[in-house]
């Protein structure tokens, strides 16, 4: 059975979200230390039980249970680098960070002056314990810095707690957070009484490892992307042990005949990775 969709409202007390969290920086973005989150999760903050399941199975992916959102996967940084190189503009755009995990892609879009940024992850624990705190930390601390590979390399000591937030910062009012399986989240968005406009840009990193999910992913992109919108997808060429990869996904998309795809960047270090751009064929 698929994980039902849920919208996570932003709690009023933002300081509480950052309570017991340790902050670091990654790619010039604030980022909650995951080991500390995992410890608090083992103490009961994780109603889904994904941390204990991931620890006991020694796995970052448990299909249908935990889909890897607690840690930041390396293609996220490829995509952040690509935004800078290709000068991708987020100003006034509506953006979805699909399969967001830590949500760093959406946070970069937010800093790039996106009009709205929505975050989606399969697991509600990831949204509550990682994505939302990361968004809050970056919104409170504001700024228009764009992440870059250079700053990621410099290891900085963990930062002091960000300054106190008395009210919802403007940036945070642009954000919404969702958990659940892709088809379920799509239904929730399309059937909600809140106004919904399709996304100008959908960002997605390391989400095509499992071919069983390609159909749901394809249909989600087709239903949620604006007719002139773009998808930027970052992936490893192949996911050993799971079976997915960029060429299998490309073939799947071609057969559906809805989107055109192009590989816009190949990263040839170790296991090859790449960035794919997608647009509607009839756009
Ligand atoms: C490997 S993680 C990558 C996380 C993040 N994008 C990154 O690069 O660090 C894959 C993400 O895709 C999402 N995901 C995978 N399969 C999904 C599905 N069938 N329905 C909804 N979300 C899914 C999960 O929420 C998970 O966070």
TrEMBL record:
Instruction: Output this protein's name.
Output: protein-histidine N-methyltransferase
Please give the coiled-coil regions recorded for this protein: none
Task: Fetch the InterPro entries from UniProt.
Answer: Methyltransf_16, SAM-dependent_MTases_sf
Q: Quote the subcellular location field of this record.
A: Cytoplasm; Nucleus
EC number(s) per entry: 2.1.1.85
Print the organism lineage. Answer: Eukaryota, Metazoa, Chordata, Craniata, Vertebrata
**Alphabetized UniProt keyword annotations:** Cytoplasm, Methyltransferase, Nucleus, S-adenosyl-L-methionine, Transferase
According to the UniProt entry, its GO molecular function terms are:
protein-L-histidine N-tele-methyltransferase activity
Its GO biological process annotations read: methylation
Q: Which domain of life is it from?
A: Eukaryota
Give the span(s) annotated as Disordered.
143-162
Q: Which GO terms describe its cellular component?
A: cytoplasm; nucleus
* Principal location: cytoplasm
According to its UniProt record, which protein family does this protein belong to?
A: Belongs to the methyltransferase superfamily. METTL18 family.
Has UniProt tagged this entry with the keyword Oxidoreductase?
A: no
């Amino acid at each position: 059975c698929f994980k039902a969709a849920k919208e996570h409202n932003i709690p009023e007390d933002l300081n509480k979200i950052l309570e017991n969290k340790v902050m670091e920086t990654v790619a010039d973005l604030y980022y909650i230390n995951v080991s500390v989150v995992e410890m608090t999760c083992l103490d009961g903050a994780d109603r889904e039980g994904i941390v204990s399941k991931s620890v006991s199975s020694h796995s970052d992916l448990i299909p249908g249970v935990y889909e890897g959102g607690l840690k930041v996967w390396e293609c996220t940084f490829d995509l952040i680098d690509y935004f800078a190189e290709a000068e991708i503009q987020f100003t006034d755009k509506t953006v979805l960070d699909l399969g967001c995990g830590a949500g760093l892609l959406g946070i970069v879009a937010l800093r790039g002056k996106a009009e709205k940024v929505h975050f989606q992850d399969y697991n509600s624990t990831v949204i509550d314990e990682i994505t939302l705190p990361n968004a809050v930390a970056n919104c409170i601390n504001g700024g228009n810095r764009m992440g870059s590979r250079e700053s990621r390399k410099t290891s900085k000591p963990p930062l002091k707690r960000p300054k106190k937030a008395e009210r919802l910062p403007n940036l945070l009012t642009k954000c919404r957070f969702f958990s659940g399986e892709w088809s379920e989240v799509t239904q929730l968005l399309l059937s909600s009484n809140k106004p919904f406009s399709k996304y100008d840009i959908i960002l997605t990193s390391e989400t095509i490892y499992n071919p069983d999910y390609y159909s749901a992913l394809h249909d989600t992109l087709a239903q949620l992307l604006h007719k002139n919108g773009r998808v930027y997808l970052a992936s490893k060429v192949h996911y050993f042990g799971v079976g997915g990869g960029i060429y299998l996904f490309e073939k799947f998309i071609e057969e559906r005949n809805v989107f055109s795809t192009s590989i816009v960047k190949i990263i040839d270090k170790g296991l090859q990775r790449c960035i794919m751009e997608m647009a509607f064929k009839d756009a």
